[in-house]
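Hello K.,

You asked for the raw outputs rather than the summary table, so here they are, unedited. I folded two proteins back to back in the same session to keep the settings identical. This is the first:
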Amino acid sequence: MGLVKNRMAHQKYNDYLICFDLDGVLINSMEPAIRIFFETMGRELGLTYDFRADRKMWALAPREKIDVLWRDEIRRRGITQEQIDKAMAIYQKGKMEANIPALPYAREAMALLANRFENIAVVSGNANFMVEGALKKLDVLSYVKKITGTDDVALSKPDPAIYRKTVEYFNLLPGHTLAFEDSSHGIAAAKGAGAKAIGVATGVETFEELQKTPADAVLHNLSELTLDLVFRTLRVS
């Protein structure tokens, strides 16, 4: 983990915002979570899909997956919102109980940036309580001043509303915001809100795929993160 010693080592910035996605950036949950989701939807609602066929779809929030994949089938079969809510609660419980590990360097990356930036947020396509629980398991919740999840917006990524809401909470400039995302959906959401974005190839998409997005930089993993890269991306002087 790189450190930059010639940049006012003791200064902590409060006019910038650092945002982390959860799945695929901080925790190695993409395949375990997606497997639990589809197994639950199949068992509880009879809704099936070959989740291996389209990894980019994994980045959608769970309720958006339901709408995108099965909207017509749900209407045709008369599946009720109450049934969907019950299945979602079972999925959320299963994911919370699963042993999902932290990604390498996730804690170190958050500690590095929290040491220099006052405002840290986690912006996720999960329900807020699930994000909070994951951050507690990671022992990084103390770094985080704001969780923005599906409780806060009608549409998750790639819609930019989730980032706009986060930036508005801190009353900061969108251009003073940097997001770490593992998918083109997440990067599109951040950039659509006027934020900077760094792709991290530890989740849904490969390094080469993320290089084709409008990300300001792409990392193979968080071991490549340096303060100098963050300062350059945000143009901190």
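The second followed immediately with the same parameters:
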Amino acid sequence: MAKGGFSGRRNELEEQFFLEKDKELLAALREQRVSKERKKALAETLGVTDEDLLHQLDELDIASETVMALSMVPLIFVAWADGKIDDRERQAVIQASEQMGMEAGHPGHELLEHWLKRKPDAALLGVWKDYASALLQTLAEPARSALKNDILGRAKQIAETTGGLLGLGSKVSKSEQAVLDDLAEALV
């Protein structure tokens, strides 16, 4: 191969390498900007300023359009407590979401449907706990108690939808009770 030909090819490869790096850097910058905008919208929707919490929510694809689904996380984890969701639990979760205004077609409803089909990662519950803690700190005592009672009451209703054998015994399984206890502890 002629000396000029090899050198020319080397220059082409270098230019192509740096062109690809430029594209990667631009894509990363765009994603950072989009992520920053999503977090800003989420902060405005939730009234939360904790950057770590907003980052965690963004990492879990919770956006201002889907944030209503976040309120359903306790119900989802109670429903998945025994490793599966039966039809009655699924229907109870859907009914609870519709009572909150998340009808079919709502972005939050779509996310909820996804969680009902595939158990979410435990990190989601951790992020929900952080969110609930931040939210509770902003509320005066009567509202704080009402919110805790509402969350735990709705979660217990999900646990009771399939409990007991032929209507006998405890309506809440041990695994569901463990999740309910964990939720109650997080809401202190």
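Residues 5-186 form one domain.

Happy to rerun anything if the numbers look odd on your end.

Regards,
P.
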